[in-house]
Amino acid sequence: MEISKVKDIGFSLGKYKIYYLVLSLTVLVVFGNTLFNGYNMDDNLVTQNHPLTAKGFSAIGKIFSSSYYSDNAEINFGYRPMVHLSFALEHQFFGQSASVSHFFNLLFYLLAVLLFFKLLLHWFGSQYQLLVMIAALLFAVHPIHSEVVASIKNRDEILAFLFAVVAGLFLLKYYTMHKIINLLPLSIFFVLAILSKKSIYPIVFVFPLMSIGLNKQKLSIILMGTVALALPASIIVSEYNLIKFVLLFVSPFIFVFVLYYSEIMIQFFYYKLFKNIFFSIYFSAFTSWFFILLGILHLEFAYFLISIPFAFLVIKKNEVFGLSQLLLQVFLIGVLFFKPDLERYAILLGLGYTAYLYHHQKKEFKYLILVSIALVASYLYLHFSFANLLLIFNLVFVFFFFFKKPIFSLLTIAIVFIVSFFFFNFTSYHWSILFVGLVCLINWKFKQMTFLKFLPFVFLIVISVYTYFQPNCQTQLTKAALAWYLKPTDITDFSGNKILNNKGFSEGRGLQYFENTLIANHSKSEAVATGFSTLGEYFKLMVFPYELSFFYGYAKVATTNFYNYFIYISFLLYIGLSVLALWLFHKKPIISIGIFWYLISVLLFSNWVELVAGMVGERLAFTASAGFCIFIAGFLIWLKPNFSFKNPQLVEYSFLLVLVAFGVRSIARNNDWKSPIELMSNDISHLNNSVQAHNLLALNLMYEVSNNAKLTPQQALAMQNDAVLHFKNAIYLFPSFFNANYDLSRIYVGQGDFPNAKKYLLNAYVLDRENLFVLEELTKTCFELKQVNQMEYFGNKYLKYVTNNENIHELMAYLCLVSNKKQHAQLYAERGLMIFPNNNNLRMVLRDSQVK
Fold this sequence. Notes:
The chain is built from 37 helices and 4 strands. Strands 1-2 form a two-stranded antiparallel sheet. It has a two-stranded antiparallel ribbon with strand order 3-4. The protein is flat, with a radius of gyration of 36 Å. 42% of the residues are buried.
């Protein structure tokens, strides 16, 4: 599409008012119910009782010099000043109100949808207005956006997307007018997007991609636009790390050059490489051996099954070479996985085809007979016995005699089988003889080598599957022998500094295992597999957004490996999308742009670039979903070029059905976000194996008990009991969860159940022996249980760090006194009085302890 085709659209777009009206009504109908929701999880990060945003105008200076989050524990992470600024302005004019915050979230989302429509209309042109409307409608109602709109805290995603879309409009204006001055607002608005959330950075790849695919600009013009986007974004995102800045700044330009010359490259790769290499015998042979090696490295027999089709391709191109390779592979797998059946089969196949080639006077048999002799020698060396020697002799005799006198070979097989049946136990040895007889009989009867060629491979697959499903599949190798490959990787930051395995980082803050299991030791293959698993989850959410969750993480999403079939589905899906996007870039650029937009945006959250809190997050796919909607719209128009809502047929009705289903799901999901307890209680049914989901629900139940004065005693007790249940579930799923153990103990303390309180306090103590809160609570709990010795142990350990806790001094002195440990009581009372000389309780204990 030439740029001249879109000049007539202009920036007013008055004739498209009906489209804007439909989109506005759609957004209001689908997401209007968010206005009635209250505050929810993490809203304190930006608005609810926030120390900065609550001050309005007076905090603006502090906002731009402060982290996104900081607390009294000196934890600081993130930098999103535009988000805090929006709430500061909101509080200045309207005060703190959940309804007001939800109104502005809805307003910003509506603007984002309308500007997204406008951006696509500018870029694609008026001839694609229906396609643009389909994409915008799908984007407007997608249920994955519910978290972004209904959660006040997630305004950062909306603002980042909104500013980025405005930047895209100014980029197109620069392409239209070629005035450098237009690069200034482009940079400003993209900086505002980055200052809303840094994860919008992938747009620096998307907009140049659209320029190349749609507008056919000169390379110099595209590069200038890319500089205006990438330079300020790279400075902010890199946080002044030089290496990171260079990578962030240079990468978009490499991407531009590759795409700009992609047509030439595709021609080269397809005709010079793809056809000559990927369709060659060498590629098939290499791929076959690759899966064999994977089977050895992963100690997994299933990889051998995957290698079989590639071995067949080699045989099809060069029969002798392919057979020789297959024989070696079958024999090797048989040796490594203790499968003598496969070893015998390799010998059987080798001798059979060698005899065939010899009797048909084909010169190639010399190479095959060398392989067969080597396999026979290896087999007899590994499994020497009279039965095996007899089997080999029988095979040689039968095959080399068969092509002259078939009846004599069949009689020989029958005699050997009968004799061996009486002298040896019936084993797979006898099945091998029967198989040889069957092949010979079929070939003798039909006298067609074609069937003889086909049958052994069927048998190979059957025997492979049979041996794979045998119990206790073992190998000659051990994981210890492969430690160099399976050794977990050290996690490092961008500069190469080692990060402790129990820390992990996501935008500057530490992660815990139940938030992202990849902070623990893992192999490189597990990191790759988990990334594909994450990407698969995102695609499922795009296509089937039914089961939505406020949190994912362990164990709903966890570290996985290549034994998981879902990984292969995800791998093939994303490779397929990538190939499709490249292939269609110059044929169907809109579809290609949609795929690339989705892929580039979602890859950032694959856990390959940076570990993600929760491993998967619906809010994180917000920008990526825009590309997905473009892809779907482009595909529908490709599928039916005369797509029309005026004369709807199957395709149109199907789209409308999906649109309505998505809208209904979004409305229902918005209602779930009314309050934290309602949200989490709704999701816990399908998050029953999520540690953090149980923990957060329990914490919010206890917060409600503590802060809602309207609750009756019965309601408060019921909520407490529910909280106990969910804390216990979190501990069951992850026993090393310190916070859950400690918080559960606090509930039991409040209920006066001190034995259970001590049980979970001791769990917390084992996890953190220097935690002062745990030591203090253990001291108090042991006092209540009148366990004087343990109270002294924990109390003294606590007072080593905190000497000015008056209550602990009193408890220790008093319990020792009533337990008749007067000398200890006197010691503790005197120690306390040195710090608190006016404490009457300690004076009384000291006096009583001195009474004989």
